[in-house]
Amino acid sequence: MSMVSALKWFHNWVGFFISITMLIVLTTGVYLGSVDLLKRTDNKGQAFVPLTLEQKADTVSRLFERYPSMSTIRFPTEHTPYIQASTRGKAIALDNQLNELSSSSSFDLPFYETAFWLHRNFLIDNGGKYINAWASLAGGIVTLIGIYLWWRVRKGFRLKQSLPKNTRSSSLLKSHIQLGLFISVPLFILCVSGFLITYNSLWTGALKPKAALEQVAYPVSQANDWLSQLTSAQQIWPEAELISVSKPRSTPNKGPQPDSDTPQQLIYSIQFDQHQGVWLREADRISINYQQGTIESVLKHSDRSFAGKVASFVRPLHDGLNMPASYVMLITLVSLIGTLILSFSVVTFSRRTVSRKKAS
């Protein structure tokens, strides 16, 4: 068997067997992306009014006290013109006077929880997420092989063949090829990033800030004083926009902990945008010890290593986290087109397989 024949066999047969998992992932991706877009278009009846640094400090202090279970406080921006207190799956929107506008949980939406876990692990707990990961990686490989096979016999891109004229296999196949070329790059990125989200140990180490070769003396703020600490952070990047403040992540206890008189240090993360048009939002971060008023680390996205920059995009490229709404719209459209392509390929492949068996 020649290499081209082997690649065709892999593209057809492996693509056919993973089509069921891919159809589940893509159709649920369309639903989840649509929900995200609807949330982003809801401005809660607010017009964007920027907060002063004093107002931001007061907001953080009051909201962390009012909502102790919330992990992040976000300030109004042109994209979301209201204050938001959030934790995983839950969000509370407030106006600039801290009056509550709405409280929502993603899992309260119809079918959302089922769609989310279907997308993540096919409702099979841990085993499902690994099946999903390897099927996604196989899908990325099938996509690359499809591009190569087209490149060998390419005759240009024929837009008129993107939509099938009828239900004949030849028309469906042409549509499969043209639409596949159209979404090949973003589909490959979605497949690979989905695999990496499951096997996050492959890349999360690149996100950790490296020890500086030279120690930088940052200003020391007043302990337990948000205004003083946010002012010190803003002075490091005076032109940047302070977007949010996040609590330190709590680590689950793995057995009895030894008694200690030393309180746990609260290292908060303060996120910035260099300007309103940044592609990846909240990517510049300053970590500060709230109890001592000392800055622990300062890290700009542009100062990360190449591996760190790539790693910081793994999840955002997959689900649009901290990305513009236009990108969420793109990956939702890619998922919709991918659903059509897989449907065409399943029908065509099944017909050809059945016809060959009848002929034999």
Layout of helices and strands:
Blueprint: H1 3-41, H2 53-66, E1 72-74, E2 83-87, E3 90-94, E4 100-105, H3 112-121, H4 125-152, H5 169-198, H6 226-236, E5 241-246, E6 267-273, E7 284-289, E8 294-299, H7 306-312, H8 314-319, H9 325-359
Antiparallel strand pairs: 1-2, 1-5, 2-3, 3-4, 5-6, 6-7, 7-8
Helix pairs in contact: 1-3, 1-4, 1-9, 2-6, 3-4, 4-5, 5-9
Any idea what the shape is?
A: elongated
Oligomer: single chain
Mean pLDDT: 90
Low-confidence stretches: none
Listing every helix as H and every strand as E from the N terminus to the C terminus, the arrangement reads HHEEEEHHHHEEEEHHH
Widest sheet: strand order? 4-3-2-1-5-6-7-8
Largest sheet: 8 strands, antiparallel
- Based on DSSP secondary structure assignment, what is the total number of beta strands? 8
Helix and strand content put the structural class at alpha+beta
Instruction: Estimate the strand proportion.
Output: 5-15%
The radius of gyration is 25 Å
Quick structural summary:
It contains 9 helices and 8 strands. The protein has 360 residues and is of the alpha+beta class. Helix 5 crosses helix 9.
Structure characterization notes:
- Strands 4-3-2-1-5-6-7-8 form an 8-stranded antiparallel beta sheet, covered by helices on one side.
- The protein is of the alpha+beta class.
- It has 9 helices and 8 strands.
- The chain has helices at residues 3-41, 53-66, 112-121, 125-152, 169-198, 226-236, 306-312, 314-319, 325-359, and strands at 72-74, 83-87, 90-94, 100-105, 241-246, 267-273, 284-289, 294-299.
- The mean pLDDT is 90.
- The radius of gyration is 25 Å and the shape is elongated.
- Strand 3 (90-94) and strand 4 form a beta hairpin.
- Helix content is 50%, strand content 12%.
- The longest helix has 39 residues, at 3-41.
